[in-house]
Design brief:
- The structure is a homodimer of 154-residue chains.
- By secondary structure, the first copy, chain A, is of the alpha+beta class.
- In chain A, 43% of the residues lie in helices and 20% in strands.
- The first copy, chain A, has two domains: 5-87, Arc Repressor Mutant, subunit A (Orthogonal Bundle), CATH 1.10.10; 92-152, Ferric-uptake regulator, C-terminal dimerisarion domain (Dna Ligase, domain 1).
- Chain A has helices at 5-16, 23-33, 41-49, 57-69, 116-130, 147-152; strands at residues 39-40, 73-76, 84-87, 96-100, 106-109, 134-145.
- In chain A, helix 1 packs across helix 2 (23-33).
- The A-B interface holds A 75, 77, 79, 83, 98, 100-101, 107, 109, 111, 113, 116, 119, 122-124, 126-127, 130-147, 150 and B 75, 77, 79, 83, 98, 100-101, 107, 109, 111, 113, 116, 119, 122-124, 126-127, 130-147, 150.
- The first copy, chain A, binds a DNA duplex (30 and 30 nucleotides) through helix 2 and helix 4.
DNA sequence: ATGTTAATGATAATCATTTTCAATAAGGAG
DNA sequence: CTCCTTATTGAAAATGATTATCATTAACAT
């Protein structure tokens, strides 16, 4: 197994928090650290299964839960009835998603225009105060049709 | 059954589109039109079940699907593993949600500050162009802790 | 090297949602 | 108003994602 910077960083985080470094966790971390897709638990299980047929789906779910808890990955839902996971980017690379309702394609969007970041900071401050709500994070999902799907309909 | 303006409006929409007006549909429409909560299918089923024990959960699901298709209601997910439904507000009352990760409380937020609406219009135009993506709608979810839950922790 | 105990994997359980299919009822035609 | 077609319904079973159980295994502190 080849480890990259990101997966080593994640391993360190696990250890620091007192979790054991096991083969399944290493494999899953390594795999996640090398993809920028928004994967289903099953996707991850199937990909890993080729080289590691002894790692079960249950363990994939458990590891994903753990990584979410440690904020190393994010869990999303786009109304598909199942969850998608992706590596957490650095803070400055906070991003939003475009989801194609036709084919399920997901586009990451993080080239914020103008003062978009400043804007959300402002909204959050306003909401926190008005609704006495301790906001931890936000998600913005844009739904519609991607280029290809839109053209197919014409 | 007492019908209000909103439910009559919704009935009309169904009929116009060629769907039959049945008792279960009328009951569900009437119930939905009188609540501003974000309900689970099961919630709706249970509430209705008191007066209409013959209306099944399956029919509730089917009716909700239909209403979503007709854009009369919206379907949301907040990472709970089940969907929530709410009446579609008028366009000018487009709103976003604050979701309490502790107790599941949902707060509607539609008193947009400054030019928030203008801002989203601008973002959408930018994204549509850059990613050649036909955006139909967007969702903004703020996650955190509501007042009560936050105080409980201190 | 070893003992403690967290982590795993196989299996079964759970839970939301969907499918199936025979019975019913909406609503147009006569 | 009655009949006919067919959309809609309800009960039950099926599906599919995720979680719980529990005996076995392996991490890692000592």
């Amino acid at each position: 197994m080849r480890k990259n910077k990101k997966s080593i960083e994640m391993e360190k985080c696990l250890k620091t928090q007192g979790f054991r470094m096991t083969l399944p966790r290493r494999v899953i971390l390594d795999f996640l650290s090398k993809t920028d897709e928004h994967l289903l638990a099953k996707d991850i299980y199937l990909k890993i299964n080729k080289n590691h047929p002894d790692i079960g789906l249950t363990t994939v779910y458990r590891t994903l839960d753990l990584l979410v808890k440690l904020s190393l990955i994010n869990k999303f839902e786009f109304g598909e009835g199942q969850s998608r996971y992706e590596l957490t980017w650095d803070l400055k690379e906070h991003h939003h998603h475009l989801f194609c309702l036709k084919c399920g394609k997901i586009i990451d969007y993080n080239d914020f225009i103008d003062d978009e970041v400043k804007f959300f900071t402002k909204i959050q401050k306003f909401l926190s105060k008005k609704y006495k709500f301790n906001i931890q994070n936000h998600e913005v999902h844009f739904y519609g049709k991607c280029n290809q799907c839109h053209e197919l309909l014409h």
